[in-house]
Amino acid sequence: MSKLISIVIPVYNESKSLNSAIHTIIHVFEDSSYPYEIILIDDGSRDNSAEIIKQLATENGRIRYVLFSRNFGKDNAISAGLARATGDAVITIDADLQHPPEMIPGMIELWEQGNEVVYTYRQNKNEHSGSFKRITSGYFYKIINNLSDLELEDGISDYRLMDKKVVTILNSLSEEEPFFRGLVKWVGFTQKGIPYTPNARLSGETKYNTKLLAKLAVRGITSFSTRPLYLAAYLGFLFSLLSLLYIPYIVYSLYFNHPISGWSSMIATIAFFGGLQLMILGLIGLYLGKLFMQSKQRPHYIVRESNIPS
Predict the structure, then answer these.
(1) What is the CATH number that goes with domain 5-207+298-306?
(2) Is 0.85 surpassed by the pTM of this model?
């Protein structure tokens, strides 16, 4: 019996590219011996993506869908797809066709060779992205690798194949803000990374602006490491030691009746340390906030409509 392949596609405002993406993926499987299912997760799209998804499902019985009540984020959409996938292997891929579907047969072949995770990373990062985004992306991966216990390749993407056993582990996790690029690395198993050259978007613009990338970076770092807290403690200890060097100057000035001048430098020092303290308090607040949100145990997403039996 052939092994079933599940394709999970998060969708957010992709009405102009959705039909092309689905038909391209179906075409890839036409010459394959593997049966497949396509699971579309509409993450609260504001265009008519949901209507297109339902129309595609009526035309092809292999297409299943879940419609969220609002936008809950890409990683939560992926989580919903993984929870409903029944395949022996699950492939997550974007709906904008920047992830080349033609790579799917090669990913399946690597899986059949014993790799339980086959992930992709961008090879030509400068082809369809601006210089600012390339720079910030490079710094993002450097920071997360230095401050966390993970090693993520520069340009690692959400285009990956995972064995059913890996998906089962991921489904058992209950993180408040899942970060699958890190979680898939964290679970281990036999993993194989392959480069890909992203295609040009068929329409629209990337959903990851500078604000979202910064939020993603903070979430990735705080989800997999407490090193920033150690760094804050080390900074506090270091500046406490440095402040002791000021004591001999104070004693000398008092003993020889020299006035202690430097109002401007004093104000600058107070402002610097005040900002440092606020930064450290904010860092601690991030970790406490994650605990607070986790303790509420709210659902990660709310399903408005689906054609998948519960």
Answers:
(1) 3.90.550.10
(2) no
